[in-house]
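User: I'll paste a sequence; please echo it back and then give the predicted structure.

Assistant: Echoing your sequence first, then the prediction.
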Amino acid sequence: MDIQQFLVDLRQYGLANTIPNISDKNAQFLRDMIHIGRVKNLLEIGTANGYSTIHLCMALRENGGKLTSIDYSLPSYNEAVENIEKTGMDDIATLIFGNALVELPKLTEASFDMIFIDGQKKRTLDFFQLAYPLLRDGGFFIVDDVIKFSEKMSGFYEFLEQEKITHSILKIDEDDGVMLIVKPKK
């Protein structure tokens, strides 16, 4: 299978059906971060149809890594499972159907090198508080859509300021960007 062509087709399908997939520039940024950080264990919150998941898995495969992704929408989850299988990434990706607020506490034994949040923006603070302890020291915590949807992230920015958590906002797309937090080493 030509995975690059599959991704082009999946992106077009996503645009035609208003599926909230990441941009191509964002996909490249995430893949670069996986390579820079030698990421081997990645957590994604918000799978959608698996577009971002496939991109992440492609980079993880080169590092010998694994991905865990959580989504609460059954149609999205089912579509992602199908797309992950079609691309042969099912040996790298573990997809979890469920509410991340319920599923994240079940991952207490996990230690992730990178966490990517692209789920419900109004739950960003909740996701962060549950997922950040799962990130290893020196790991990357990346939140998508932090410019365009900042008003939907109630309390998140205030929490970061209050807790003195250093973060950078990187403008990846013309109208949006990501937040990057590098967890300090103890």
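The beta strands are 41-45, 66-71, 93-97, 112-117, 135-144, 168-171, 177-182. Helices lie at 3-16, 24-36, 51-63, 74-86, 100-103, 124-131, 156-162.
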